[in-house]
Amino acid sequence: MGKINTKVTDSVNFFMGNKPADLTAKYGSPLYVYNEKILRERCRDIKNLVTYPHFSINYSAKANSNLAFLEIVREEGLNVDAMSPGEIFVELKAGFKPEQIFYISNNVSKEEMQFAIDHNITISVDSLSQLEQYGQLNPGGKVAARFNGGIGAGHHEKVVTAGKKTKFAINPENIPEFKEILKKYDLKLVGINQHIGSLFMDGSKYVEGVKAILHIAKEFDNLEFVDLGGGFGIPYEKLNDQPRLDLASLGKELDEVFKEFAAEYGREITFKVEPGRYISAECSVLLGTVHAIKHNHEDKYAGTDIGFNVLQRPIMYDSHHDIEVYNDSEKIEDITVVGNICESGDIIAKHRMCPEMHVGDTIGVLDAGAYGYCMASNYNNRLRPAEVLIRENGEVQLIREKDKLEDLLKGMKGLND
Ligand SMILES: *Cc1c(COP(=O)(O)O)cnc(C)c1O
Q1: Is the full-model pTM beyond 0.85?
Q2: What residues are in contact with ligand 1 under a 6 Å CB criterion?
């Protein structure tokens, strides 16, 4: 095989001897393939981030909430975040205990809050009005709150979640009112959290954000934890040798900040982080098949079965995903790789230099494990793909079946049903 065709997956022995085309022949194309060993490695990277003893990692399950996937994350000793009762439900199924789950709510109904209260799950509220709602439902209870430290970061406007232009979190100016509501309902504030945004590759912005939230933390006396959020980036441009996030130096800086804070606060509180993508992105390759090659004016297109119903990130955030081509081509050419959905925006990669593709080739979209399957839909009444896990011994295990045609009718009622 030509070098660049499989450069990235070869470098990490991703398929462990399994042939991509055999996998799609058996489980269908497209197909989400996960590598258990890589997933476990990413969990351990973050576990070893700091030496500070009271450190908890809450995997942000919205990035990938497959049951088997969550079970592995739990085995690695991570806790989880939840963004909805549905995530709480799946996380409990995966064996997480209520005290290992942190519900970061955003504009939720009374019923959703009550669901978390009934399951003894700590909730973080996102506004004064949601704190009121919490107080009414659970007077005397424990609660956390999300604050906006004023620092935002992210790879796209849609994922910057702090700073001046965001729907998220409580503005520190409102702390006096916030404290009044705590008092009114006899609530105990156990923690505060923030999430500055997704996919930072330079730790300095994160540290700046950490300092900002710790500044806010000093306004409260009896905190048990401060949660610093996620957003740890991964290099999506591996074929261009994009460097990794420097976790070693980030960890060192965080250690210093944590120790300094503990000294000033008078107590070693727990610090939490919430990585989503960092844990889940790199352990997955999305396989697909080329079904058409064509030229439209100057441009050459490869038409595949990877529509944006299967992987939303390129159309939603203009995201880059590297592409591998599992054939022997040595010729590299400029090609636009598209899906099978009836919309012109259905593009996986525009004008990409790739090994020459032919009808019938299997291709791989790399780093697809975060915000991949969980954002997949049945748009165009397409079936969502299967998910398989390559175990540490190289065996392949089905961890989610491909949709069936009948699934498209689930819950639907015809006029005479
Ligand atoms: C999405 C999200 C995360 C995870 O973000 P990543 O970029 O995947 O690390 C963490 N915390 C909160 C509150 C989020 O909304």
Answers
A1: yes
A2: 60, 62-63, 81, 104, 195, 198-199, 229-232, 274-278, 370
